[in-house]
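Reposting from the mailing list since nobody answered there.

I have sequence plus structure tokens for a pair of proteins and want to know whether others read the tokens the same way I do. The first protein:
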Amino acid sequence: MLAGASSSKVTLTLWENYGTESNAVAIKAIAKAFTVQNPNIAVNVVSEPADNYFPLLQSADVSKSGPDLAVMWTGLYALQYSGMIQPLKGHVSATALSKMEGLQWMTPGMTGTSDPLVMPLETQFYIGFYNKALFARAGVTSVPTDWTQLYAACTKLKKIGVTPFSYGNGGQALGAEFYPWYDLSYMMIGDYSVAQWKSLYNGSIPWTSKTTEASLAAWQKLKTMGCTNPDVLTNTTNIQQFEKGKAAMIMDGTWDTATYTAAMGSKVAAFVPPFSAKPIKGVVDFPGDGISVMNYSKHLADDYKFETFMTTPAAAAIINKAGLIPDLQGTTTTNPVNQQMLNFVTQQHLTVYPMLDNVTQGNVVNAGSSELTTVLANQTTPSAALQKMQQTWQQLPASQRGKAYAG
């Protein structure tokens, strides 16, 4: 039985790996607002390096000297690190939990919603962004909805001297090259249902599927026909190129929406990446990360109080102000481009998919991150890249490729 929240002054330590993203702004503001409501509980937000974050968290778990609260990615990441996480069931009220979306993606086995390991910070979209002014100037009168329309739009955009699709790492700490799982998520949305994505996890659909190979070949054609910048593997200024009107499209996520709307105003809009031979009817809409309670914390009751605060309208207002989408059921947002993304689901009724890399085994994700970038760069064939991903899958322990999701 947990003791009640502290009456004397305590300091909770919260680790985050957000860097300079809007998420960092949001969590620091939430921590401050929480302390205003609970003057005896200070929250010390510590920024840790994203590229070494999880090894640091594991080391802290071994020594039991780490944070009380920590940013945790959802899906298989939360399951992988569940041994250091204190579940929320019974400590955060069922009423509070019922306000949050997507809890099934952070529960053991990724089934049910009553026993989450993570309190979501916000709803995230992997998405495409495009420059409406450049589309109009090039004579692209409608947003592409399949490969054929995308290739045609690229041809028109090249004629006005802009890069149709800019790729690069955008200063991300995930790696030196662009992150291919944004794109692959939409290729797999075009090819498979949400239920079939689990077949990619358990091997019922191998990564070497001819369907998947064909999608990668169509994606590779983007660079072959000059629809991308030539330096897809080394470019670090793709965000700036997009903001300054030198590129018409970019793949990214909601953590950068506020950056784009601040720089581009009404010129920027979101679109569902048309990486399919037929119009895509799904969108990545997923609470990709949040805050977990570390099970060695000496202030568990206070930790749960913080987690409960994250379910409140006050916290949602802070998240919205930071340019993000609150995870509350039925939420709206004041950022027009973020609201456009929500409308894909609420008005256009696109099927909601998780982030593919959050429901794919970590070793396979790492293999894909290495191999898929070279596919777009025309240094590797789709077949060779997928074979390496499949080999990585085959080397996983049986417990990580069964019928049920496991960490």
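The second protein, same order (residues first, tokens after):
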Amino acid sequence: MTVDHAAAARLPGWRHLYSGKVRDLYVPEALHPLGDVILVVASDRISAYDFVLPTPIPGKGVVLTQLSLWWFDQLSELAENHVVSLDVPAEVAGRAMVCRRLQMFPVECVARGYLTGSGLVEYRETGEVCGIPLPEGLVDGSRLPEPIFTPATKAELGEHDENVSFDVVSGTIGADAAARLRDLTLAVYSRAEEIARARGVILADTKFEFGADPVTEETVLGDEVLTPDSSRFWPADEWEPGHPQPSFDKQFVRDWLTSPASGWDRRSGDAPPALPADVVERTQARYLEAFERLTGAPLGGALR
């Protein structure tokens, strides 16, 4: 599937390069004082089941950007990140970052501390997740004995990411690079899990993207980090293994799309319908609640 590039804003001094499911990327129209950089703009688009939905969630891009910036600051001692400036065009203030361009590794670096989602499906079939054997008797929402690295291939827009083993990653990017990504992923997840837990939030799993700085060859944390789009956050006081957990993310959207009320058949290949107002409002509220619980502060300013 494709994203309508015409939907990306025209920004002075920047040329639109690419639109993904949620983010629009721009390059400078002239030599930039900070060097080889890219403008990353988080839109209010929301995706589910590999479709970009026709209905945005107002302010979602602001939440994603501001929460990523907060996490980058919390994790700065563990991993360098790609943000170099917040001096962005006024049209995208609050939802954009000027970032150094990286040579991105072609792997989704997923860390799991709890069993759910595609990991649960794989465990039920094989007793393993991405080739890692797990104890018997785990259920949906079970806490794992220790966090595990369960990478996935990066799919093209509209395709499914595929869980793969560590050996597959090693064969793709080399053993040293794969080990470095695994160790960084687990270190960052473990620190973030501690921070979230202290705020009454369980970080069940998350995915990171890393790239190599083309000049220093340093491994750098890029894209977004630890947002409701890239992570499963659960309220700690409601955690109860054995069934799906309430979450601070787009679960309201997924649940409505798969309910009879939507009239949508996932197997048809047809695009999903527009979201009703109450689903939009409840989803927006969960994203805002995730931000406020984690950071301890209201988002502040108008959501644009």
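Reply #1 (J.P.):
I read it the same way you do. The domain at 5-100 is CATH 3.30.200.20 (Phosphorylase Kinase; domain 1).
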